[in-house]
Write a structure and sequence with these properties.
Layout lengths: L1 H5 L13 H12 L3 H11 L5 H8 L3 H18 L8
């Protein structure tokens, strides 16, 4: 029916999706990083960019990108340490 085709899709209960708590924790941990460390992490983890590509994309020296990622990864490792067994 035409009415069924125009009906709004059912809302997805993302919290019921397996792994959703990991997704939420990881994104919350990234948001808790200092602002200058968040975007390099997003570009590395979610866009798959190399350190050199991140440096180009953010117009930063390569060493700055590496330092920010190192600090961010240390913080994330500490914050998310309890997820290691889950994964």
């Amino acid at each position: 029916r035409a009415e069924a085709a125009s009906a709004a899709p059912a809302e997805i209960n993302e919290a019921a999706t397996p792994g959703w708590h990991v997704h939420e924790r990881v994104h919350a941990a990234i948001r808790a990083l200092p602002g200058d460390e968040q975007e390099p992490v997003r570009l590395a983890w979610f866009a798959g960019l190399s350190h050199s590509e991140i440096a180009t994309a953010l117009a930063l020296p390569l060493g700055t990108v590496k330092s920010r990622l190192r600090r961010a990864h240390q913080q994330l490792r500490s914050t998310l340490h309890d997820l290691r067994d889950w994964l």
